[in-house]
Hints:
Blueprint: E1 2-5, H1 10-23, E2 28-31, H2 38-47, H3 56-63, H4 74-94, E3 98-103, H5 112-122, E4 130-132, E5 140-142, E6 148-150, E7 171-175
Amino acid sequence: VYVINLATDAKRWQYIQAQLEQLGLPAKRIEGVALQESKALMEAKQSGWIPDSFDMEQAEMHAQSSTLKKISGLRGSAGCASSHFKAQIQSYSDGFPITLVLEDDTLLQEDFVPRLWNMVKTELPCDWDVVSLNSKCPFGRCVSKHLARVQPDLNEREQDCHFGVNFGTHGLLYRTESLSY
């Protein structure tokens, strides 16, 4: 179990750590990536958390264009994505067969562990790579009682980047070997 947590959010770390301890789950803290400074963006590119070709200024201009929904907080979103890539790299390096990545503001229910384990044992298709444990707007086809294989919603405009089906990074379960770097 890996938990993404910004250095400035000590209370969030304590909150999720208490939940995990109560559930008997040890966790490794992954320091979140804050991209407000250009130095942090350079470090994220050098570390492989963001593609070297990514242009933050161009992305921000595009996000504010009239064709989009005036997306704000792009640096925060990119920082969140970078933090997830950082956690993936760490988990692949640690070599566990299954990786659970949580954000520090995730609320875990007391039956989280048995429900998750039951899903892993009885519902995951053989070819699974990643499972979002909190998809807000999944679109796709059912593969089991509780799981859908998410696919792009072709009813959305291409320039909106399938905005409605991308939410849900609070809890992600990975088949670690599929995270090859």
